[in-house]
User: Fold this.
Amino acid sequence: MSVTDPAEPGTPDPGSPAATAPSQVTADPQAAAAPKAGSDPPSVIDPSRPIRPADQPSRLGALEAAVRARTALVPEVGIVLGSGLGGLADDLDEPIAIPFADLPGWPSATAPGHVGRLLLGRLAGRPVVMLQGRFHIYEGNDPGLVIQPVLLFQRLGARIVVLTNAAGGVDPAFGPGTLMVIADHLNLTGRTPLLGPNADDIGPRFQDLTDAWSPRLRERLHEAGRAEGVELAEGIYAGLLGPQYETPAEVRMLRTLGADAVGMSTVLEAIAARWAGLEVCGVSLVTNAGAGYSGVALSHEEVLAAGAEAGPRLARVIRRFVADLPQS
Assistant:
């Protein structure tokens, strides 16, 4: 069933060829027009306002209540739909779509290709929650806001999170269209979502990230790729602030540091997910070679075009991965 947002007919999600089709899942127009009880009107939401770990429980409580007013579904898996994977949302059965603006404290998404909705439904028969779009630091969002979606996944019942993104290739062998299972990451944003008084009921003060990217789930992703006939590479993802792309010198530096792909998201979400006890895996869709490799100027249009080609392959892998998870 389609859950494509009809409000942005000129900006299709790169992973969905049918992004301009009318949605079969729409929010109640009256509910969308009026702010939810206890939430700030969109005009006064300040996404840059610091959110400390100790602030999260009360905020998550309000978010959970807003979701539970729409659905009682308890997800097993949370999936962040990065650029190029939006088409996976159309595979949801019995979907419920909640615009970001209907969730307390969440502003609308602004990144191109990010619709900005929380989706709940069944994928391959399994209950899941999806984030169609995400919050980025480069949009002016505080790290505490950037991570709230994955914390909400855990609050709603998920135990596994799958993080996806579009990325630039740092390893010269990773050309456009490469799907890279994330084995580890470099947090080069200079930010952490765990700064400030801790919320011990969410997670510990000092979080071990030795196996931040679950070896068990990484192997399951590779198994799903083999079952679908989709080749998957594996490597290290470097997360930077953005929104500018890297210089050729920075790409060479990243390669020296051990990075295989680079992007502007994901690392803070992974930290927060592990803090909350979620098991984490992820895939980067390499949409372009790093600056200086091809001799061609980088553009977001290139990212969207590569996502449109490779997104369906990644969607097949994620569907199979979810379908083949052991029953809890």
Summary: The chain has eight helices and nine strands.
